[in-house]
Each structure stands twice: as C-alpha cells, then as structure tokens.
Amino acid sequence: MTTSEKKSKKTVWDMTLERLDESMDLLDLSPGLKKYLREPRKVLEVAVTVKMDNGDIDIFKGYRVQHNTNRGPAKGGIRYHQDVSVDEIKALAMLMTWKCAVVGIPFGGAKGGVVVDPSKLSLRELENLTRRYTFELINTIGPKKDIPAPDVNTNSQIMAWIMDTFSIDKGYAVPGVVTGKPIALGGSQGREEATGRGCVYTILSALKVNGIDSTDLDVAIQGFGNVGSNAAKILHDLGFKIVALSDVSGGLYNKKGIDPYDLQKYHKENGVLTGYKKAASMPGEEIFGTNCDILIPAALENQIKRSNADSVKAKFIAEAANAPVTPIADEILDSNGKFLIPDILCNAGGVTVSYFEWVQGNDAYFWSRRKVNLSLRDIMEKAFYSVYKISKDRKVNMRKAANILGIGTVAEAVRLRGIYP
Ligand code: NAD
After folding, report:
1. pTM, full prediction
2. Hey, which of 95, 100, 116, 152 would you mutate to test ligand 1's pocket, going by the most ligand atoms within 8 Å of its Cβ?
3. Tens of pLDDT along 361-381?
4. Is the dihedral of CA 21, 26, 27, 32 positive or negative?
5. Three-state SS for 160?
6. 230 Cα distance to chain centroid
C-alpha cells in the first residue's frame, strides 16, 4: 500500500462502500433503500476452538456475514487466511450480492472466513478447525439459507468436511449445504475450474467488443491457486501465451511463454512457484508492470493501487480476484484507457457453476461437463453483453456498469418484497 493509501487507512470495506455510494447515485434509489443496501443483514463472529496435535487448545476467530438474501439463499465462499478481518468479509459478502445479480442467479451474498494461516496446521488440525467452525455456524448455514463454497486456501476436501459435519447434526446427508464439493459427494462437473473458465469467457468477449479476434496475445497472472492456474491452463489451450505468473513466493517471467501444466507439476511437488527453472525469477510485485496484453490479478484484494497502477502496460485487466484494484487505481487505469472487466462479472463463473451444482443436487440429476461448460458460457456472455451495453448507453466504465446492473437488480427485489413488518 502507498503511504497516502496507508495514511487514509481505508479498508476494503470502506472502498466497497465508496463504490456502492457512487453507483447508487447513478440509480434512482430512495435514501432508505440506499441505507438498506449498505448494511449486511447478519454478521456472526465465532470462536473456533481446536485441539491441536500437541494436546493444547487454540482458538481462531471465525466469521460468517450474510449481506443480502432478498433474491434467494445467501451464497459465498469461505476463506482461511491470517489477514482475514470482519471488514474484509463484509466487503466480500456485499460483492457476492451484486455478483449473483449480475449473472442473474437466484442467490444473495455471503462470505465466511477464519483468521488462520492454514499452512501452519497439520491435516488433522485443519479438519478439526473446519468441523468446529461448521458446528459454530450450524444454525446459520443450510441449503435454503446460506450455502458456503471454496475461496482462498479452502477446497473440495474442506467442503466435504463441512457437508459431513452439517449432515451428522441433521441425521441425514445434506449435500446442498455447500457447493464446490467432490464429485463423489454430489459436486458438479466443471466446478473446480469454473471461476477460471468464466474469467476466460469474459476476456474473449472483451477482446471481441474491442475488435480483436486473435489469441496470439501475452498474458500475466498474479496467483496460481484455483482461479489463476485454471485461467492459465484454459488460456494456454486457446493459444494465448502466459509470459508471467506470480504467487505468494515470487514471480516468473518467460517471453517465450510458460507452460502452466508443466508449472503445475512443479508447484505440486514444491508448493511454490519460485525455483522453477524454465522461466526467469522476478519479484512478485513486478507482475503488474509486465509487458503484456492481458493482466489477470487472481490472488487477493488491493493489489493494483496508486503506487503501481500507472505501471500497468496491459490494455485488458481481468479481475479474477475479488477487489484487486483500489478505487484510486481504477481512476488511473481509466485515464490510461484500459479496459477493465470488474470482479463481480469476471469471476462470477464460480458462483454460476455452484448454482448449477445446487440445482443438480436439488433435482438429483447430474449434468455432463459439456452441458455445464456450455451453460456457463451462455450465462457469462449474456452478463458480459448486458454490462457492456449499460457501459455504452450510460457512458460509464465497465465497473460502474456492472454495479448499475447488480445493485439495480437487488434494489428492485428489495422494493418489490417491501420491508417487514
Ligand atoms: P487459492 O488459495 O487457490 O489461491 C490463491 C493464490 O494467490 C495462491 O497462488 C497464492 O500463493 C496467491 N497469493 C496469495 N497471497 C499473495 C500475494 N500477496 N501476492 C501474490 N500472490 C499471492 O485461492 P483462489 O480460490 O484461487 O482465489 C483467488 C481469488 O479469486 C480470491 O480473490 C478469491 O476471492 C477469488 N475467487 C475465487 C473463487 C473460487 O471459486 N475459488 C470464485 C470467485 C472469486
């Protein structure tokens, strides 16, 4: 963070509210409705008590925030990270609300997190933590109420433990309580790579509306976890060249391109990207200034900020991560003529296939991977063109256009349902 950004001490929640206020001003909303949309419906803090392998007891702070449930059950991932805070979870829950509305799926927004560095836990401790956190949320989550999914440092195994814990409490199997489950437990084909795939569909649409029909383009990606690695592989398969990649350990660059499949093998063995010999190493932050056509932040929030926004050379920025660009950086990128695909559109592929998983589970009828991917493509393209049309009609950038669509849709739902009592 830059000194001025640090000085202003704005959290991701402050920045999310700032963007919300700005977008609500573009919509014709009553002052009361504006107040309503700013507030999460429920903020739960829990003490996650875990018996550690050495026999000691440790306590981790956990959160679950439901921002809005007017259009359907709350939906959103669970993050395990040492920097999790209630403000971060509130912001991410709010983004989920707008995201579900942008892609037109009948969910509200939620997010959960535990303040923990999972790399410091054994597998047994990770399972104990997950089960205890689930137990603390047992009256909050549920297939008709609030449905968690994977996010940073959580995966299908963790979803399986959540499903098992919830099901034991109920006395019967409740697969619909989470999405992103293993296929053997009712997971969906294509969910694992859905966020990366959806991001790629939005990139292809963005290229198209900008008159580019070639895939002979260079790409840089921050983050090589679920989203970053899948986006890299799908783009590579389509003929794009992945020239730079970074993760928490550092960055890699190869002008001739990096094979993400080969890199993934290395990553599986070593747990990090650094040390990979088929590319030059570079400091992780340098990823943003990479000479390339498409830049994909796929790690954490607040990565492109005042201090580095001007160094971005890519014409296209695809926000695979949530909130990776600060509002000040938005203005800089805008004035430099960049085409930004905002998070609530760009990374909505994950929640879209989570929705397919929920539908398949409810119907007890499972789709082919082809059907999942085709349906995902339909939804992502429709959402992209709806946002793009608003951006052209209203003469606003893609972020504001996506907010107009997402916030406007939720505002209409709130207005129609009315305020109880
Ligand atoms: P992940 O845990 O699988 O991967 C995170 C990656 O980010 C790792 O490669 C990690 O090394 C890297 N990273 C962490 N801190 C970093 C830093 N300071 N600098 C550089 N790299 C860093 O997580 P994920 O599921 O791939 O999620 C990534 C982003 O995408 C998050 O913002 C998440 O909220 C968002 N997202 C995820 C999904 C999903 O389906 N998993 C859906 C929508 C949005």
Report:
1. 0.97
2. 152
3. 989 999 999 999 999 999 999
4. positive
5. helix
6. 13
